[in-house]
Amino acid sequence: MTSAFYIKWPLLLLGLIFPLALAAQTLPEGATQNKDKCLGYELEYKRYPKPVIAQVQADMYQLYHQESDWQTDASRKGKPLNDGILGPITWSWMQRFCKNFALDSTHDVVATLPLRARAIATFSLQHRDDVTTLISIPFAQWAVSHITACELDTQQTLAQGSDSDLQKLVRCYLQPEPQAAAEPEPLTVIDPYQLYVLRADDFEAMAGAVAKVSAADMAITAIAGKSFPDKLSAIAEINAQLGKLSPDESKNISAKLSTHILAHKEYVITDKVLNNLSQQGISDALFENLTTLRDKTFTDQKEFSKAITAAIKTAASAVASIAATSSEVSTSSSPAADAAPTPNVDKLLLQIQLASEQEFYRLDEAAAQALLSTRKPVAAAVIKLLETLKDIEYPSAELLDLAIKNKILKAAGICKLDKSNTLDTQLGNLEPSETAALFNDINQHIASEASDTIKYCNEDHIHKLGNYYRSQLQPVVAPLYSEPMPPYTSKPLLWNGGGKDCGCVRKELQTTAYGIYPYWKTGAATQAFDFSTFNRVAYFGLSAGDNGKLIQINSRPGSKTLLDDNSDQAKAFMREARRYGSKVDWIIEKEFSSAPDLQTDAGLKIFFDNLKNQLVQLLGTPLTDAGSRLRPLMTLGLAAQPTNGDGVTFYFKNFPRDAFAKDRFDVFFKELKRELAKLDETRDRWNGIKNHTYVNIMTTQSEFLRAGSIFGAGHIDFLTQVSKYSDDNLSIPEIQESVKTLVVLLLEDPYYNALDEIYAVTTSTDRTIIAPLMFTDYSEMDVKADGNSTRHQIDERQKRLAYIHESFGGGGFWPMIEYTNSSDGKDYSVFNSYIGKHFSPGYNESLWNETLCGYRWLLIAIMNIWLLLALAYLVIIFYVYPHRCKKLPVYIRWLSHPLAVITLLLPPIGLWEYLIVVDPLFNILNLSSLLGLVVVGLALIAGVNAIKALKEQRPNRHLLQYQKTAAVPQRQPASTIDANDVEDSETVQDVEK
User: What is the torsional sign of CA 406, 409, 415, 420?
Assistant: First the structure.
């Protein structure tokens, strides 16, 4: 290419794309939403002129031609990657490019893509190795998890960065990070059947801990350094400071503090001490010296002795000097007066010490510092913030810990976690003063400067916040949020899907809503669910023993459970969900860390062999209620007798990471799918409606992203073989039915970043079977800005749900959201309306969709019975009697009247045709349709015969009789018979006889 070509192409692209950029601001009427979030709506790109598409294809070739997938697609019939046409193959590689270079972070992807593709293709001519790194899957995962790297904004650099910035980003990625020596992770034994949730009493306990710690610290501070004449006075002061606490707590803290109140001595020469010493006869010189030490406190006996000794010696020298002067002027002194007496220093020192010694009691300073709380109590703002997580139940402590850290980091405002145009309405409605206090508190540990421009959170923020949480909050919160799962109560599950206007699962379904129903949500009142939205639901309540035998979680020995109770009442919930087209799975939860026998190959083999047999038996057991037993007969083989479930979901926690464990699970998974497929084939061999029993996997985001994990992205793709459907023109539900597997991913807060990470390591085909699950309170969602949003308007819950239905095959919901009159008293109407609208776009309201679909099997049974009766009616009335040349009895002669025929045949035939048109399950290739065709055919033939009979010329019998009589003259007696009374089939002679 010449330099002139490189100059002209950008100008041409700008001229062609400018009108496209204007048109891309709004979604045109009739446009359908593309399931890949990066590019958005495919219709906008269809407006690219052919030269632009051809250049994009050429640029894609420059970037991806060394990959085997590109070579396979390029060699397809018609050369779809070199034809200048935006077909599905070119579209898929444009999606790949958009994802690799984060074009969704730009303002207008439609206008940006051709220009950026040209720039990256040019860059690759000189830096091929760098581009190979940039388009690799490991780099894509790294770019999502590293929002900033080497002082670069990762997403912005990929989307708009210069060549030098891209090279710098690649060097940053390739530069090995210093890591500490890896130590083998010890196997932490976790108690099975645990929930992690903050209840109302937990917040009371946190508030009580704040008051308790604060009161103890205040008491310590109040008495620290304060002297008391006796120990009782010190204890009385402590009790007074702890007066706000309960008597028991006050007593405990007081007892702890009183042990550190110690006796101390000090020496103070007061006026009273000086008067007492003067009366005891100390010298005037010593008295004067002691006066200089008045009110001076000595806590050290040695220092006091040193000062007193010096005073005594000074006073003694003064007395001796005065005595010598007096002796020189005295002429008549006795010998005794010749020398002044020498004072006894030790005696005087002891005398003064005893006089000035004072005893007092004081809290030991070292003990006081040790008793002060080294861990600050949970601040009131944090408690208020955490109340937004109240009663949200998590299956693991790690998920709740991440949610708490996300709340704190987001509310403190130190950095951004979600997209700029989202608004988190679940941050506790903190006051500005509370937010400022929270910022100052958290910022002490993160050391981030306050700024008007808040940057996105990076790894440094997350790391420092984790250290703060582990040292300050987790020791307080962790003992509170763990609780055992409630006991199983054997109450029947009371579900209702009919008290609403939603109807059944819609044929326009694009995204699976996977609702999980924990067994402890069962209550005395009926619960309403929108099964038209939750087209697949799962019962969470089963586990497996170490021997592989299925058990009901926390059930009493000998009590009836859903495993052994196949009664009509026990399985009514399953019939109610299926009535509206929803499927019902069983979730098998198993904690492997507490099962040492399952850490060996032999133990796992026994476990999986027994579990496979148990599941085949569970899912193959037919339901025994009258409706289920009669369904094959009443539908004339259209549907088989329903069985005990439509699938199973494995939630294996802390599964062994050994190679033998991986191999065992692979064998188990494939054999179970094969057995269940054989079961479906046998059951549905002669049925028109085919069943698809699913084998699903539930795992955490960290396991899904971990390299080499048994539940990692690569290994799940190997197990499910979903990638082989990438070239087939199948919808998301069709791919799911073909694979017969869903992957429910338990996301880790922050959820939007989590979705980005999963998006980065998966293809659009992979994502058709992935259902991310977010632990979020969906009550009172705000979707007023839906479709007309501006900055800071969109409820982040809506943003995440939009991400899911645009880019994934399903979304998980724990627990399954109730439709009306929720048992927790919250309003979920907006949420139900939103996912009903967006998970099944194009849904049309009709009598069938809203009402009649719930009575599908009853209507089919009525139709079949009526068609059988109609067949018998036609055969008897219009074929059997005429064929035998017999007349109908008088009492049923009216059945041959045309009005009777229409009344008897039109309803079943009309219902048959109506079901063919409106019911997606009722296809024309079934016995009911054959019966309907036979009835219609016989009715038409009978009608044609009746019309022919009416057109036939019937002879005038009276005229024939007259002619006969006239031709053969004979004497006849006079007849009194009136010719009008003669039947057409009778002669006059017959009447006379």
Answer: positive
